[in-house]
């Protein structure tokens, strides 16, 4: 009989799950796992901080729909994963985290680097477990992957004590079965179709579940056939092409934006794959007077502003296809003036010659340089709001935004994994200077792996989003300003390419040169965030078109 140790059994199970990469740092309590990985077809991607490993696993999950895997040792290695694990769970990204631990004979007493990681992760995962016997590894791995990718997706965690990974074991991975979701109930479909037929001004609110369910084609068909306009949340950019005449682009600013005019008028809101996390329902249904059709894989969350008249539960693609057949097409809605106004907002200041660069011009230049299938991974900060609002998107999963946990430091690690998944596409990380400095060490990872990505830094020498709120609320800022290294010299010290924009006219040529360069590139762009307050004032004077 052939024996494996627990670490080899674990890796065999990961291979059975079609795991391509494990992102992480090696540690003393995980050396057996790293040794087993070294003899497998799985690539271990060594990063410079465990948080980056979890961010990379999270973005892998969002891009592929399959759980990304990250690995860390016990104690500080495991605690460094926490933010990235929470980010995946709140952003609905499938992820499986693996952590080492001391052997179980030491659990009853204080011991070097021992903390109870399982209890720590319970509130921020779908499931977490300590494996106490190597013979249970196949079941635990299969369960963690199945739960991680089941709707709504999220993070799972397995802890592997040293005695378990060294234990001899026989066994084999469990059969992997593809997830499927039931067809929606006919009565719910009929009731939803009737509500649509009776509606005067229906509107679709498309959430990230549309992208997770690969239902963007069905959504566009549904909207086009029935003549219903669509607004996307930030994390659903590309759910319907911006070029479609029924697209109202994105909704999600805390300030009232023009797309809100479409919801003001609406009497029926068809929420498809919608997560409260992306944009709270009180923002678009403050008076609790909208009829709501909930279309999703799972039942709705409870909220006084979100009480659906009917819930269409099941495969989202099938639900949209069936509703398109049952409901009656409507006359084209008179959204031309509203859409025209929204489109004009995406073009505002797009050629402004002033310096520092207007954020609108930078977002416009990025769109001009990037192809439709190229991927932008957007970090968190003031720039995220400009990208979400103004960056036209026609293809799903080409703009990756964290709008659940919204953790700074997400952009650069996410761009690295996007390049691993799609090596032939151009990949851009768009970061503020605050977020970039939280994960900048991963430039070394990009250089070591030979990944040609472009990191564009909106530099304003402050935590711009917080400064924006402080100025708006108090008229002054405090605790938000900081200094930066010379970002060009800093990038070159890693062996990356460094570029600095010094005039507005230089912007597009420099972005183009960075895109064509071998290896990672960093583009330092001084940005005029005075535009933030101008936008607030502008939206405060918003008048809906008739």
Annotation keywords:
3 domains; 17% strand; six-stranded parallel beta sheet; globular; 39% helix; Rossmann fold; 23 helices; alpha/beta; 20 strands; 546 residues
In short:
The chain is α/β, with parallel strands linked by helices and 546 residues long.
Describe it for me?
The protein is of the alpha/beta class and 546 residues long. The protein folds into three domains: 4-169, Rossmann fold (3-Layer(aba) Sandwich), CATH 3.40.50.970; 186-339, Rossmann fold; 349-538, Rossmann fold, CATH 3.40.50.970. Helices cover 39% and strands 17% of the residues. Strand 2 (21-24), helix 2 and strand 3 form a beta-alpha-beta unit. The termini are far apart. The mean pLDDT is 93.
The CATH architecture of the largest domain can be named as: 3-Layer(aba) Sandwich
Q: How far is the first residue's CA from the last residue's CA?
A: 78 Å
Mean pLDDT, all residues: 93
Number of strands: 20
**CATH classification class of the largest domain:** Alpha Beta
């Amino acid at each position: 009989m052939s024996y494996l140790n627990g670490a080899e059994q674990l890796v065999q199970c990961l291979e059975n799950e079609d795991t391509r990469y494990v992102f992480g740092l090696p540690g003393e309590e995980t050396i057996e796992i790293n040794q087993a990985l070294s003899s497998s077809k799985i690539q271990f991607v060594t990063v410079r901080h465990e948080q980056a490993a979890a961010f990379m696993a999270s973005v892998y999950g969002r891009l592929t729909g399959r759980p990304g895997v990250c690995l860390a040792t016990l104690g500080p290695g495991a605690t460094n994963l926490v933010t990235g694990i929470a980010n995946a769970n709140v952003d609905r990204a499938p992820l499986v985290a693996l952590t080492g631990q001391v052997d179980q004979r030491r659990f009853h007493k204080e011991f070097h680097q021992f903390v109870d990681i399982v209890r720590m992760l319970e509130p921020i995962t779908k499931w977490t477990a300590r494996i106490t016997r190597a013979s249970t590894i196949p079941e635990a791995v299969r369960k963690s992957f199945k739960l991680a990718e089941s709707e709504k997706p999220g993070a799972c965690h397995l802890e592997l004590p040293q005695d378990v990974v060294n234990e001899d074991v026989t066994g084999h991975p469990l059969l992997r079965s593809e997830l499927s979701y039931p067809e929606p109930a006919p009565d719910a479909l009929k009731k939803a179709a009737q509500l649509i037929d009776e509606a005067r001004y229906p509107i679709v609110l498309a959430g990230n579940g549309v992208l997770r369910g690969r239902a963007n084609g069905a959504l566009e068909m549904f909207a086009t056939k029935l003549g219903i306009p669509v607004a996307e949340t930030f994390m659903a950019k590309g759910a319907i092409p911006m070029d479609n005449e029924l697209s109202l682009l994105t909704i999600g600013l805390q300030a009232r934006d023009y797309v809100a005019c479409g919801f003001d008028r609406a009497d029926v809101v068809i929420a498809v794959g919608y997560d409260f996390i992306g944009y709270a329902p009180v923002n678009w249904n403050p008076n609790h007077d909208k009829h709501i059709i909930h279309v999703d894989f799972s039942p709705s969350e409870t909220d006084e502003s979100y009480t659906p008249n009917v819930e269409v539960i099941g495969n989202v693609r099938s639900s949209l296809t069936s509703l398109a057949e049952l409901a009656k097409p409507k006359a084209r809605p008179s959204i031309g003036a509203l859409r025209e106004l929204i489109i004009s907002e995406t073009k505002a200041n797009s050629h402004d010659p002033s310096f520092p660069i207007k954020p609108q011009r930078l977002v416009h230049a990025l769109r001009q340089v990037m192809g439709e299938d190229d991927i932008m991974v957007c970090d968190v900060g003031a720039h995220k709001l400009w990208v979400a609002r103004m960056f036209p998107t026609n293809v799903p999963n080409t703009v990756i935004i964290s709008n659940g946990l919204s953790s700074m430091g997400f952009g650069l690690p996410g761009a690295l994994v996007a390049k691993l998944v799609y090596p032939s596409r151009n990949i851009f990380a768009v970061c503020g200077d605050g977020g970039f400095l939280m994960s900048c060490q991963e430039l070394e990872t990009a250089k070591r792996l030979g990944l040609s990505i472009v990191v564009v830094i909106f530099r304003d020498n402050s935590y711009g989003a917080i400064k924006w709120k402080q100025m708006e609320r108090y008229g002054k800022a405090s605790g938000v300003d900081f200094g930066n290294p010379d970002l060009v010299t800093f990038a070159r010290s890693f062996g990356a390419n460094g570029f600095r924009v010094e005039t507005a006219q230089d912007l597009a040529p420099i972005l183009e040169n960075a895109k064509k360069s071998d290896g990672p590139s960093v583009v330092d762009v001084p940005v005029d965030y005075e535009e933030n307050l101008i936008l607030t004032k502008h939206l405060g004077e918003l008048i809906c078109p008739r």
